[in-house]
Amino acid sequence: LAGRVVGRQPLLQVGLAGNPNAGKTSLFNLLTGLRQKVGNYPGVTVERKIGRARCGDREVEIVDLPGTYSLIPVSIDEQVAVDVLLGRRADTPAPDVVVAVADAQAIARSLYLVTQLAELGRPLVVALTMPDLAERDGRPVDAAALAQELGVAVVAIDARTGRGLDALRQAVRDAAPATAFPWKAAAEDGPEDLLDADIAQRYRWIDGVVARCVTVGQARRSLVDRLDGVLLHRVWGLVVFALIMATLFVAIFVVAQPIMDGCDALVRYLGGLATNWLPAGDLRQLLQDGVVGGVGSVIVFVPQIALLFLFLGILEDSGYLARAAFLMDRLLARVGLHGRSFVPLLSSFACAIPGIMSARTIANPRERLATVLVAPFMSCSARLPVYAVVIAACFAAWSPVAKAGLLLGCYALGIGVAVACSWLAMRLRGRGTTAPFLLELPAWRAPQVKAVARVVWQNTSAFLTRAGTVIFALSVLIWALTTYPRPSEAEVASATAAFERQELAAPGSAEDRDDRREHYLEGAAIDHTLAGRAGRLIEPVIRPLGFDGDIGIGLVAAFAAREVFVSTLGIVYRVGDDEGGVAQAMQGARRDDGRPVWTTATACSLLVWFVLAMQCVSTTAVVRRETGGWTWPLLQIAGMNALAWVASFVTYQLLVRLT
Amino acid sequence: MIQTLIVGVIILGCAGWLAVQGWRRVSARKDCGCGSCPKAGK
Question: How large is the ipTM?
Answer without folding.
Answer: 0.80
